[in-house]
Structures are given as structure tokens and as C-alpha cells.
User: Fold this.
Amino acid sequence: MITKEVSFQVKNTKRGSLYVEDILGRDLRMASLAIKAKLPPRYQDITNDQLSKLAKDVGVSHITLLAKTPYDIIGVRSSDPEEINMSTKQWGYWYDAFQQLLSLAPVKVEKGITLPHYWSGPIEIADSNPEHIDKWGYYYDGTTNYIINPFFRDNEVLEYENRFGPQSIIKDFTREQGILELIVLNPKHFGKKKEVVHSNGQSYTRISAEPYWYGHYKYPNIKTDSDYIKKAIKTNDVQSYKAHINGKNIMKTFSPAFNGDPFVIELVYDYGLIQKELAHELQVHILLSIAIMIIVLIISFIFSRSITQPIGYIVEQVNEIAQGNFGKHLHLNRKDELGLLTENVNALSNHLRSYVDDLKRSKELIEFQAYHDPLTGLLNRRYFQEKIKHIIDPNDKRRTLSVLFIDMDRFKQVNDSFGHNKGDELLKIVAERIKQCLPDEGRNIITRQGGDEFIILLVNYDLQETKAAAEGVISSLKKPYSIDGNEIYLGASCGISLYPEQTENFDTLVIYADLAMYSAKKMGGNRLTVYSEQLMNSNIGRPRLEARLRKAIENEKIEVYYQPKINAESDTLFGAEALLRWTDEELGFVSPELFIPIAEETGLIQPLWELVMKMACGQMSHWNKNRSIPLSISVNFSGRQFQEPSNMVKQVKEILNETKLGPENFEIEITESILLNNSSDIVESLHSLQDTGISISIDDFGTGYSSLNYLRNLPINTLKIDKSFIQDIKEDWGNSEIAEAVINLARSLHLNVIAEGVEQEYQKEFLLSKDCVQMQGYLFSKPLRKEEFDQFLNSKEKGLRFKIIKENE
Assistant:
């Protein structure tokens, strides 16, 4: 009854206030016309005192004149001293409205009311003085060099709400016994950070952003109340909970109401009164039932002495066992079935205690061994790889990571001279010295990778701090070691790589640090080296990578991942791009940016290409077996494949025939650089492939030396917009000119166009607005293993069937 009455009052007040607000806005326009008739057209000829007198004559609180400067619209004359020289540039849509008035255009900010040459903003807190509530009007018809701004203040604005609002009924209800608080809450802003506006040196909160509209919030419990308010709005049902706040046991109820914008009425009861009533009722029932209870107790006592008591005793012990409290011993001197049951329970309890104790010890040992190096006690590679997944956040570019790859110099000589047992003792000392150099465990992870290799992860260290830490470790490790009275001198080589400066892939980051470490060893050891592109372009570490890559190709350890291609307009899957991934047993994950250039330089690109073609085409043929609309697969071709064009065409046809994949379901992706040669052999091979039904796509279009001539003359089906142009697009569709130009170019040349690297919803919406419907990127899916792609394919098919069923219904 209370919440319905208050809700009714709030709704009526809101409707009446809006009506009164419109009347005030129209009154201010009439006042503006009267003011215009009394003032000269130039504000330079008007005084502030003149405006003060005129405000009284026309019945408004104040009059301000606004004029445009080269960079702002400011108060030039006013009966309110606070508004003189007041800037409006930071007022948001108010400033937009002023500009539209000055251009003699209708105001279209969709706030307040708009009339010819006039706009009245909504009731808000005054910018010049946040202690005031104002209702403004703005008039400009081009005959003056200023905007006329009359406004009402405080009681004149809120008179209707003060007279007819729900405040009085809220006060009446809170006088009732047991009702502690009655308040009308704004769910849109309750529990959120205060929306503070800073303007002209003042700070204030807008009325529309206040967390509650009527009443006083005397029993605060913001986080819990916020959750219950959301639940009440979502379910459209009353929600309640009990709590102890401000020294009282209370019950809060939240009743939702809807009148345009929803609001919630919170009612706080003194639950202590309710508890007293319940206690009184309980006392009455106890007194009425006491006679029956005495009889029951007497009977229970008699039977418990012979049967119930020992059974209860045994049940109590069994419950203890069920709760994990093992080892207690039952004492029951009986030789019947209950005595035998007691002995069995004791035996079970002792056995379970031994079993659980052994299990806990085994679990602790297994967990420690799983994540720690048994020799040094340091964390191991497995912990390192799992932990880093939680440390790296692709969306947080502010966090920096440094990887230190340390390898002991001349350690093999120690093993050869003193034996592996002494070498193990030496590694323990090395581990302890590293820990002493990096005592801040919150900002580093120290691991032993195996042998005499250690990897250290430093969190939020800059380059100078990283170098200083590495130099400290190297300095400590080169101090002499004492083993069985023998002084041993070793050194350490350290390689450093940085995230996200050098790469955002952590496995690649480790490889970079490894390469830098080998560079340090090559320069004599006992030093640190920071990874760089020049280092990568040298031969350091390449023989090892080349050997591992050659072995991976021979053993077919290279994986093919599939990134879905989506028709975003219909949300359907039409194909996939085949991408290479290599995780080596020794090197870990190796980035394609690292091993593909090596494959091209060493001639391994041809067997690598053949392996990928067979895997990708065979897998796509398998997926297409039972599909009414087959999917297509696209494979990237290197420039090496076009050194012998005729042989390449022959191989493509043989692989398609071997894997039973139709040529119409296969697409070649090539870069612009391949087409620059424009040799007759390349053109002829592309025509030959296209004649069989194979599609040809230009990958990363716009990043090379583009030529309209090859787009017009060569056999090309699709342009692929490079992801850098897509990721440059801003949320307001800024920086979209290049992407739009490529789309228009493809359309004018009658070519298909697809966008790659789509990661944000607004990028998708921009592309759809330009009729570019084919996309791929992390917004839809990352590159997937074949098992993951299977699941993705099934989910898409289920979604499509559901959509067809819904359309038929």
C-alpha cells in the first residue's frame, strides 16, 4: 500500500513537473521577446544594471546576454555577476544548441523544447553556482549580436514539485512505528561513481545523475542495495533482504515502478519489532504445547535408555565421519548388534583417517613437483607457461614485461671435471644467488628451464631497471663458488626481450630472449644483450631454428589453424583461411613471422607449402562432405611458388585432385609484391588456375606498391583490406577513408572485397554501412585448431537452423 501510494505520487509529480517545465520554457520565450523589444541590438550599448531592472519588469530571476568569440560563446552582460565572462564551451549539448541558434537553424539536440529562434534547456543545476536550480531560455533571431538568456531560479523552478511532490507523504509514512526510511531511488545512477561536472571553476552533480530523488538515505549499504535494485528492475518484482545497519536489525524492500524511466521505492522496516512479535507468538505456542512435550520427553527418555540413546550415539559418530572428522573412538559396552556396529564404525574411522592423511600428503607433493624444479626448488617451465596466461592482458598495454634468459658459462666443464653431483650442488647455489638478487617476489618469477638455463620474468620494469636487475644477477653469478674446498669461477650470459614493445606473443618473447642470450655467449659471455631487429637479421640462433624447422616439417609437426570467414550481414560462415602454427618441443611456440622468412631463405618454404596445402585441402574436403553449401579454404602463396609457375599450377591441381576438393572451393592468397613482376609466366599461371575455378585474392591490399594497372589487367577475384586500415577506424568512424576507398575501388572494378582484422563491433557496423559484408577477425573468432573449428562449425549450423525455424514460425 505504501509503495503504491508513493509510486502514484512520484508518477503524478513527474508528469506535472514536465508540464510545468514546458510552461516555464514558453514563459521564458515571451520574456525573451519583451526583453528584445527593450534592448539595443548591440550588447556593447547595454549595462548590467539595465538588465537587473529589466529582469524585475518582465518577471524573471536574471537575464544574461551570450555572445560568440573566435573560440567560445561567453556571457558578456548579466544581472547575475557570476555569469559575466562565463565560458560555455564545455557544456556539451548546450554549446551545440547555442551554435545552432546562432546559425539561425532549428535546435536539434533533443533536450528541452524548441520553438522558432528559441530553445529552452532542461532544468539543471546552475553552472555559475552549483547551489542553484535554474530553468533557462535562449532566444536569437539574427537582429542582435547576442543571445538573450532569461532564466528562473530555485523556488520559481521547483515550486510545483515542492507543493505537489511526494515529500509530504514520505514524511507521513516515516512517522509510522517500525518504518525507518522511505526513499525513491534512481536505478540508472545508484551505486555508480558520482557524475561530477567541472565548469568555470565549479564542481557539481546534475539532477538527472543524482542516485536518489526523494527522501533521505539514512541506512546505507550501497553495494548490496545496488544488486537488489538491479534485480527488482530486471524481474519487475519486489525484492528484500535483512541486515544490521546503524545499530539496528532492519529489513529492506525494493519495489520497482515504471514511468518512462524506471525508479525504485526503498522501504526500511525495524525488523527488531517483527522479531519481538515473533518471539511473543512463539512463547504462546510453547505454553500451549508444554503438556504434550512433557509426555513426549518422558516416553523418549524411557526408550532412549535402552535403544534410542546408543543409536543416537552411533549416528553422531557417523555424522562426524561424514564431515571428515576421523579417528574418534566409540565406547559402547554391548555385545549385541549395536556393539558389533560400534566396532565396525571405529575401524572405518581409523582407516579413513589414515587414507585421507596419505592422500593429502600425496596431493601436496604432486602439486609441488608439478610446478617446481626438484633440484633447486625454483618454479619450473610448466608453472611459467600457465602463470603467464594470467599475467598478460591483451587489452592492457600499460603493463610491461621483461624476460631474462640466463645460461651459465663454462658449466659443462664443471660437470666434466667434478661430476654431475657437484654440478647439481653448484646449480642450487646459483638458484639461491638469483633469488637473493631479486627479493621482490610480487614483481618477478624465477624459473629453471632445465640444465643450466634459467628464465626470469620481471613485471612492470622499464628497460633501465631491467638492465640493472640483469647486471646485478650476472655480477652475483660470476663471484667464485666453493665446492669441496675448490674455488670455481663461472659466468652467465643473459638475453633480454620486452613485452609489448618487441612482440605481444609471449612464446616469441622467450625465443627473442633466447636469441639475445646466444648473442651474449658469442661475444664472450658474462654479459647481457637486449634483443633487436638487427640481432634477428644476423645468423645468431638461425642454425638452431633452421634445424628444428627442418625436423618439424619432416615429422609433420607444423599445425594448420583455420580462421573463419563470416558473412556479417547474414551471420553465416562461408570459408576459412589456413594459417601456420609451430610449437617446438625445445623452442616452444615459434611465431610465423620468425620461421617463414627462414623457410624462404633456406628453401624449406616449398616442402612447408606442400604440407600446408595437403592438410588444409584435405580437412576442408572432409568438412564439406555432408554440407549442402560447401565452404572454401584460402592458402597463402609465397613468391617462391611463382619461381616455377607451370610446376606450381601442376602441383595445385594434383593436390586438389588427391584431396577431392573442388577448385571452386579453393582460393589462392598472394601479396602485391608477387604481381609487380607482371611476367608473362606468372600471368599465364594465374589465368590457368582461374580457368579451373580457383579464386585469386590480393592479401594485405594497400600496404605494398599498389598499381591500378595490375588490378585492371590481371586475373584477380578479391581484394583483402589490410587489418591495419581496419584497426585505424575509430569508434566515431574516423580514420576510415582508406578502408572506404578500397571498398569503392573493388566495387568499381567488379571485384569481391573482404576485411581482415575486424575486432570491434563499430568496425563491423562501418563495413556493413559500406556494403562490405565479408569479414574475418577476433570479433568473430581467433584462428582455431581443426577440433575447435569443428565446434565452431556446429554452433553456426545450430544457430542457422534455429533462425530458419523462427522465421517459418
About this structure: Residues 566 and 572 are 6 Å apart (CA to CA).
